[in-house]
Amino acid sequence: MGSLIQAGGLLVATTAPGGLNQYYGQADTTQTTISGTGLSALSSVYTIPVGEADNAGVAYELLCGGTMVWGTASEHLELAGYFDGATIHTTVTINDTVFASGSTQVWDAHFRMVCADGVSSWLGSWRFSANQVANNIVPGTAADNTVTAGDSTPSAVTAAVSSSIAMGLRAAWTGTSGSPSIINDWTVFRKIA
User: Fold this and answer.
1) pLDDT at 23
2) Does the pLDDT value for residue 21 go beyond 60?
3) Terminal CA-to-CA distance of the chain, rounded, Å?
4) By the 8 A CB rule, do 36 and 176 touch?
5) Are 83 and 157 spatial neighbours (Cβ–Cβ below 8 Å)?
6) How many whole angstroms from its chain centre is CA 129?
7) Fewest Cβ atoms nearer than 10 Å: which of 31, 77, 122, 183?
8) Domain residue ranges of the chain, discontinuous segments joined by +
């Protein structure tokens, strides 16, 4: 990781691999509500600074969570990891029948990306989990569903570290009938390696 500091040595903060300031985290409680069609930012969008990921193995993580109201009509929830202006692989759709009509859920997600070459090649994945909170949990009943969805890069995604790179989670509904909504209450972004 880094070098040992010898007695009388000077401790220098640096963002180089193994350096004191290499790892960091940021967080916010900016609330975002998605109740319409067309993918848009659900989590806060954070930016990897120009040149910061200039080594193979540099990694970032975005965590977020909140609540959701499943609509009373047949509307699917769409989710996608957003990295450098594009969906990392594909948009994942959660079918309208997984939760009871008009029910409330709690959800959380994590999204990780790792720079493979320190230049422009990235691999990563995201995972989303939602739990219906109607009553005491009784596994296998329609009133107590848990749904997990996610996506991963089957091959490297291109994003040059010589430019800033935006990272976030997007969401949309396939329609607005029945008033579905998903609310993000918090986001944590951190450089983890």
Assistant:
1) 77
2) no
3) 10
4) yes
5) yes
6) 11
7) 31
8) 24-191
